[in-house]
Predict the 3D structure of the following.
Amino acid sequence: MLNVGQCKWDRTRYEEIVDVLRTFLKETGFHSSKVSFVPVAAFTGVNLVELRSPEGDPLRAWYSGPTLVALLGTSDCFPSPLSYTNLLIF
């Protein structure tokens, strides 16, 4: 999860952050095939549960992946989406 709402959904900045994090995670033993990155604006809730943006959806111009909750729903770590969606406060 990357909070890129503060940098106006700049794709270049997002990719810079992903590159740095991917390198760090690989060096610490994480397998890149098991790590996903999701751009979010945690303060406003953009791309947490649904892809929406008060600035007119600038994220839609370059991001077509899942929301954070949708991605978590594909994980084996949680028994059902209801077990963690209620934990997110907007």
